[in-house]
UniProtKB/TrEMBL annotation:
Pfam families: PI-PLC-X. GO terms for biological process: lipid metabolic process. This is Phosphatidylinositol-specific phospholipase C X domain-containing protein. The gene is LOC101249686. One of its GO terms (molecular function) is phosphoric diester hydrolase activity. Gene3D superfamilies: Phosphatidylinositol (PI) phosphodiesterase (3.20.20.190). SMART domains: PLCXc. Residues 53-193 form the Phosphatidylinositol-specific phospholipase C X domain. PANTHER family: PTHR13593, SI:DKEY-266F7.9. SUPFAM superfamilies: PLC-like phosphodiesterases (SSF51695).
Length: 318
């Protein structure tokens, strides 16, 4: 028992030290990157506001959410805090400005996070369609994967094509060089990542896992995650030559050997340092690599930072 208590005390000290290091770095270098003060007037239509005819797909800093469809997961006040990563619905996230969604499903087409269940995938699809019906020039990256440990939903690719066919941007390398205007009226890049079922083929209405990559670091230590994100990002090709989307997630996650297992208090350890991460990307020479930037419990300031940096790219300030 004494050894376990000592271990937890040292763990707490490590977390506090890492938070302080990030805070000191923020105080030293600031967060005044190009576009930091951009005034976002309409988050719901921000791509339209920036100009679809001049906004290239590979210029966008895509604000995304991690485990996007978990706002109603589990049982309130009992299991929900252990699996909830977002407090907003899919529609509310899209209105806020989110443009990359991370959806996990199990064999019966219900959204899940591990063993915890949420609503049927139809809820997600209907929210996406509602948003698209109310906007004209917003492009969404919709990633749907079979959750680890679960079987693929039968014929799920056919379901997605039937539900979203009119909006689907077909898998093609040329998309990365297109402007938003050149993709319209198609609106969704749908990445389907099955566990065992065949992956979407080249030219398919759906995109396969090769087109959306990340390097997930499973830790609850904020500086460790911050620097690991930076390291993996630095190893990516520049966005101008990249033929895939690369995601960095400003998140840390609860660990089984730590007494704090609720998502929100753990991810708050890194949450305030999103703008610092953008600033450090620029100061360390990796500004041309940042593309998808995701968060738990998404907020306006996170979205505004991504939009501001995107606008700076359009204006040639990076």
């Amino acid at each position: 028992m004494g050894a376990e208590v000592s271990k937890q005390i040292e763990r707490r000290k490590a977390i506090d030290t890492q938070k302080k290091n990030l805070c000191d770095l923020k105080e030293k270098n600031g967060c005044n990157f190009p576009g930091y003060d951009y005034n976002v007037q309409d988050r719901k239509n921000w791509m339209s506001t920036l100009g679809p005819e001049k906004l290239h797909v590979n210029q966008i800093v895509w604000p995304g959410t991690h485990d996007s469809a978990t706002d109603e997961i589990g049982i309130p006040f009992i299991s929900r805090p252990f699996g909830q990563c977002q407090s907003l619905s899919i529609y509310e996230q899209l209105v806020l400005g989110v443009r990359v969604l991370d959806i996990r499903v199990q064999e019966d087409r219900h959204v899940c996070h591990g063993i915890l269940l949420c609503y049927h995938i139809d809820v997600v699809i209907n929210d996406v369609k509602k948003f698209l019906s109310e906007t004209h020039s917003e492009i969404i990256i919709l990633e749907i994967r079979t959750e680890f440990g679960h079987d693929d939903p039968p014929n799920f690719d056919k379901y997605l094509e039937a539900q979203l066919g009119e909006f689907l941007i077909h898998q093609h390398d040329n998309v990365f060089n297109n402007t938003v205007a050149e993709l319209l009226p198609k609106r969704i890049i749908c990445v389907w990542k099955p566990g065992k079922s065949p992956k979407p083929r080249q030219g398919s209405p759906l995109w396969n896992s090769c087109y959306l990559k990340d390097d997930w670091i499973d830790t609850d230590l904020p500086e460790k995650k911050f620097e690991s994100n930076m390291k993996y990002l630095s190893e990516q090709p520049p966005i101008t030559s990249r033929k895939f989307f690369y995601r960095v997630e400003n998140t840390v996650t609860p660990q089984a050997d730590n007494p704090v297992l609720w998502v929100k208090p753990v991810t708050e350890r890194i949450h305030p340092y999103a703008r610092l991460f953008i600033m450090e990307c620029i100061s360390r020479g990796y500004a041309d690599r940042l593309q998808i930037f995701s968060s738990d419990f998404i907020e306006e300031d996170f979205v505004d930072a991504c939009i501001g940096l995107t606008n700076a790219r359009i204006e040639g300030k990076l």
